[in-house]
Amino acid sequence: MYKVTDINPLNKNSFGERPLAESSSNKFSRKLMQWSGWILSIVLAAALVKLLLLSTLLNRKENFPTVDETKFQAVFLVNGQSYFGHLKEDSKEYVTLSEIYYIKTDQLPQTAKSAPQPQLSLVKLGSEIHGPEDTMYIPKIQIAFWENLKVDSSVTKLIKEQGGK
């Protein structure tokens, strides 16, 4: 028979009997189940964050702004390189840049009275040692930003002087 102090329902099973002492392996298994639940929750949360980031990147590719094909564009890549030419959206993942120019910087020798001055020049793509064609296929994800050039901009005028269309 139970004492009045033993009436705690947590200390009895469904038959009113006290449970046997829990073995150490059962305690370990129960703790392991608790930890695995937490670990699973963390892994699922990390996977959800990854899916949201991936969705944002894919959405960025789909919402590429309309390009004014009558103008030249300046394209700035995430690696710091910049090119000028006619930009055209090819697919969901790539754009094409044609009639490509880039700025080349040459350092003039330093004189005793002045610091070295960089000499900037606009170079048409194609004269490099590897002989590229005048078309570049750029993954959209590599474009930091692009902008249309004004018809009277310095770069547009130099391109026209060099025979650009």
Helix content: 25-40%
Structural class based on helices, strands and sheet pairing: alpha+beta
- What is the β-strand count? 6
Helix count, DSSP H or I runs of 4 or more residues? 2
Briefly summarize what is shown.
Helices cover 28% and strands 27% of the residues. It is an alpha+beta fold. The protein folds into 2 domains: 9-62; 73-161, SH3 type barrels (Roll), CATH 2.30.30.
What does this structure look like?
- The chain is of the alpha+beta class and 165 residues long.
- It folds into two domains: 9-62; 73-161, SH3 type barrels (Roll), CATH 2.30.30.100.
- Helices cover 28% and strands 27% of the residues.
- It is built from two helices and six strands.
- It has helices at residues 24-62, 154-161; strands at 73-77, 82-89, 94-107, 118-124, 135-139, 143-148.
- Strands 1, 2, 3, 4, 5 and 6 form a six-stranded antiparallel sheet that branches.
- It is elongated.
- The N and C termini lie far apart (103 Å).
Please write out the topology.
Elements: H1 24-62, E1 73-77, E2 82-89, E3 94-107, E4 118-124, E5 135-139, E6 143-148, H2 154-161
Antiparallel strand pairs: 1-2, 1-6, 2-3, 3-4, 3-5
